[in-house]
């Protein structure tokens, strides 16, 4: 019996990613050419990038199933993801960084995983995961944040920016994250029972620099405090399940 095609919208927020966006689209659709039962559209949400990323993304619509959301300014990664979700009418949703750090090679695993799980995500901490050129100070900061968020969610990499979900996971939810860790909010507030992690290579950026700064780290600390309080007064949170 033939499986029903999986209809997916993959959201990528952009700010000054002109050098990367065409390479990302090429990698994504070349990878999925081997998976004809996955019907994926790429939704680029651009925050009025001064380098012309929005225009470069529009040029891709002639070659790939790409939609572009143009926003008036730099409004934040979390709200960009939400804008992409709002633009989609498909039952499955995903998020990927535009800077080429998230390897599209695992896209089929992540998407097929939604046939049995509510959430799937790329993990930097699986047995075969690799993080290229991970500076010790950034690794230390990341591990501290991940450790705290694991206590809250039970997920292996709760701060992953590379994830997929069934739309019903966020049905009726008011997502409020203005920072870069919207996945953490979905794990804490979402309607899910099963999740799956997939190890992958977190690649070094080629043509762009990290958008993380002190403000983003402070936003994350604020999020963590809020979600901890949220969990303390919430009942019935399903436990995290399943690895790859």
Helix content: 25-40%
The name of the CATH superfamily reads Spore Coat Polysaccharide Biosynthesis Protein SpsA, Chain A
Overall residue-averaged pLDDT value = 84
* Widest β-sheet, arrangement of strands: 3-2-1-4-7-5-8
Work out the number of β strands. 9
The general outline is globular
* Rg (C-alpha, Å): 17 Å
SSE order, one letter for each helix or strand: EHEHEHEHEEHEHEEH
* Largest β-sheet summary: 7 strands, mixed
Portion of residues in beta strands equals 15-25%
Please tell me the total number of domains. Answer: 1
**CATH architecture verdict:** Alpha-Beta Complex
Give a structural overview.
By secondary structure, the protein is an alpha/beta fold. It has a single domain, classed as Spore Coat Polysaccharide Biosynthesis Protein SpsA, Chain A (Alpha-Beta Complex). The protein is built from 7 helices and 9 strands, in the order E-H-E-H-E-H-E-H-E-E-H-E-H-E-E-H. Strands 3-2-1-4-7-5-8 form a 7-stranded mixed beta sheet. Strands 6-9 form a two-stranded parallel sheet.
Provide key terms for this protein:
Spore Coat Polysaccharide Biosynthesis Protein SpsA, Chain A, globular, two-stranded parallel ribbon, 7 helices, 244 residues
Summarize the structure.
The protein has 244 residues and is an alpha/beta fold.
């Amino acid at each position: 019996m033939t499986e029903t095609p999986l209809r997916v919208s993959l959201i990528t927020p952009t700010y000054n990613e002109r050098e990367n966006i065409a390479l990302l689209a090429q990698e994504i659709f070349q990878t999925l050419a081997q998976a004809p039962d996955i019907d994926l559209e790429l939704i680029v949400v651009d925050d009025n990038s001064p380098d012309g990323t929005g225009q470069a993304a529009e040029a891709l619509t002639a070659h790939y199933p790409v939609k572009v959301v143009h926003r008036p300014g730099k409004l934040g990664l979390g709200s960009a993801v939400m804008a992409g979700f709002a633009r989609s009418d498909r039952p499955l949703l995903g998020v990927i960084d535009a800077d080429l750090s998230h390897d599209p090679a695992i896209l089929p695993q992540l998407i097929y995983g939604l046939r049995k799980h509510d959430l799937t995500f790329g993990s930097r901490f699986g047995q075969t995961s690799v993080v290229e050129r991970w500076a010790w100070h950034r690794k230390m900061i990341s591990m501290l944040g991940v450790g705290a968020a694991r206590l809250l969610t039970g997920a292996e990499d709760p701060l992953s920016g590379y994830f997929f979900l069934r739309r019903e996971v966020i049905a009726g939810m008011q997502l409020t994250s203005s920072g870069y860790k919207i996945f953490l909010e979905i794990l804490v507030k979402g309607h899910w029972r099963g999740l799956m992690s997939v190890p992958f290579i977190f690649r070094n950026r080629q043509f762009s620099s990290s958008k993380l700064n002190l403000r983003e780290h402070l936003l994350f600390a604020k999020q963590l405090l809020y979600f901890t309080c949220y969990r303390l007064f919430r009942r019935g949170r399903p436990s995290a399940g399943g690895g790859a």
